[in-house]
């Protein structure tokens, strides 16, 4: 069996789980982990399509996604740390002061 | 495909676990399970370079960064179960299930045909082939990445750096402050009681017993209390009673009077009120 369809389906399932996690979790760090899960799911789809079409552009795209994810995590966690330092809380509901 | 059918259920279960575990550390470990499984899937998809990068960058660097931040933020930063927007959680779950069904069913409708496979593209080695593309077709994007990475590094340093606004507290000033507190509010001047005093164990998770046999909450580290791993003291308090009986001592006057009822009621609260 030389089919990549199950990989794409798994990628879709992982992406929706990540989506739900971003929406229902209140801890900013766990929300961030769910964003990572969504990025990983899209990477899996990219690599699977690279195999389907027989060229390596999909793998290069997945590689760039990883680089951008690393940069995003560094800045995002620094922001969470700064907010935690001033508010003593890592909950996304407590950082609503920027709204006003 | 065998590896896929073994790993796919593990990944889905671990990913669902991220949604439902209470502690952020457990969520990070479950995410590690998903990422390592994913790297093996990359191997089955003929991407050995991404297999290594996935383990080194994601599992090695990014997840460790998450764990470091969890260590700094503290263990009691667990999720609140309060819903800020009423019905948001149920709506989100329904929407997520809808999205998942839509993606899988919609993708099930199309047929991609037999995969071409990467045997031709990887004929000179996967890493060599990736390097050929990366440094010809995508060289501009690759060089731009360096600007992105240095911006992220500088940004993180600026955000995490903290200027010292007040002079560093010396031992002398701390001692003076302690005396001022004692004068104003009568706060205890000496050190806190160490854990385990008069209890059967002197481990750090066993609260000290006050002379009347009740546990002293201030003797246990705040972190242990938040984590919920403080031993309950009533067992030790009972043991003291037994020892007193064995020795033939008269029970404490204070023990029999007001305290014993509160000993059994308060002690579980020492370890359990944060739950």
Automatic annotation (TrEMBL), chain B:
InterPro entries: NADH_UbQ/plastoQ_OxRdtase_su6, Nuo/plastoQ_OxRdtase_6_NuoJ
The protein's name: NADH-quinone oxidoreductase subunit J
Enzyme class: translocase
A Gene Ontology molecular function term of the record: oxidoreductase activity
Domain of life: Bacteria
Matching Pfam families: Oxidored_q3
Catalyzed reactions per annotation: a quinone + NADH + 5 H(+)(in) = a quinol + NAD(+) + 4 H(+)(out)
Function according to Swiss-Prot or TrEMBL: NDH-1 shuttles electrons from NADH, via FMN and iron-sulfur (Fe-S) centers, to quinones in the respiratory chain. Couples the redox reaction to proton translocation (for every two electrons transferred, four hydrogen ions are translocated across the cytoplasmic membrane), and thus conserves the redox energy in a proton gradient.
Keyword Membrane: yes
GO cellular component: plasma membrane
Protein family according to the UniProt entry: Belongs to the complex I subunit 6 family.
Keywords linked to the UniProt accession: Cell membrane, Membrane, NAD, Oxidoreductase, Quinone, Transmembrane, Transmembrane helix
Membrane topology designation: Multi-pass membrane protein
Subcellular location: Cell membrane
Transmembrane intervals: 6-21, 28-45, 51-73, 93-118, 138-160
Chain intervals for the UniProt region annotation (Disordered): 244-275
EC number: 7.1.1.-
């Amino acid at each position: 069996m030389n089919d990549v369809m199950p990989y794409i389906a798994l990628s879709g399932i992982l992406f929706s789980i990540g989506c739900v996690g971003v929406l229902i979790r209140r801890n900013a760090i766990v929300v961030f982990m769910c964003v990572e899960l969504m990025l990983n799911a899209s990477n899996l789809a990219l690599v699977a399509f690279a195999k389907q079409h027989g060229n390596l552009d999909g793998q290069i795209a997945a590689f760039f996604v990883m680089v951008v994810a690393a940069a995003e995590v560094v800045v995002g966690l620094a922001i969470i740390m700064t907010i935690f330092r001033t508010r003593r809380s890592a909950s996304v509901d407590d950082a609503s002061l920027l709204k006003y | 495909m065998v590896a896929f059918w073994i790993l796919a259920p593990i990944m889905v279960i671990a990913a669902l676990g991220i949604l439902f575990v209470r502690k952020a550390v457990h969520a990070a470990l479950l995410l590690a399970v998903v990422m390592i499984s994913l790297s093996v899937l990359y191997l089955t998809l003929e991407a050995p370079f991404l297999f290594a990068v996935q383990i080194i960058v994601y599992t090695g660097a990014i997840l460790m960064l998450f764990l470091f931040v969890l260590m700094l933020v503290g263990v009691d930063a667990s999720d609140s179960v309060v819903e800020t927007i009423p019905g948001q959680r149920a709506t989100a779950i329904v929407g997520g299930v809808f999205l998942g069904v839509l993606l899988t069913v919609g993708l099930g409708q199309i047929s991609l045909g037999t995969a071409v496979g990467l045997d031709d593209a990887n004929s000179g080695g996967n890493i060599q082939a990736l390097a050929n593309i990366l440094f010809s077709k995508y060289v501009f994007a690759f060089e731009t990445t360096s600007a992105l990475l240095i911006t992220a590094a500088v940004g993180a340093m600026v955000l995490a750096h903290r200027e010292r606004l007040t002079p560093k507290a010396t031992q002398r000033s701390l001692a003076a402050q302690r005396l001022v507190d004692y004068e104003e509010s009568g706060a205890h001047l000496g050190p806190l009681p160490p854990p385990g005093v008069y209890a059967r164990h002197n481990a750090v998770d066993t609260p000290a017993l006050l002379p009347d046999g009740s546990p002293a909450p201030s003797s246990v580290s705040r972190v242990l209390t938040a984590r919920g791993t403080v031993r309950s003291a009533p067992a030790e308090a009972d043991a003291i009673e037994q020892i007193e009986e064995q020795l033939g001592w008269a029970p404490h006057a204070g023990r029999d009077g007001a305290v014993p009822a509160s000993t059994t009621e308060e002690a579980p609260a020492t370890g359990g009120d944060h739950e």
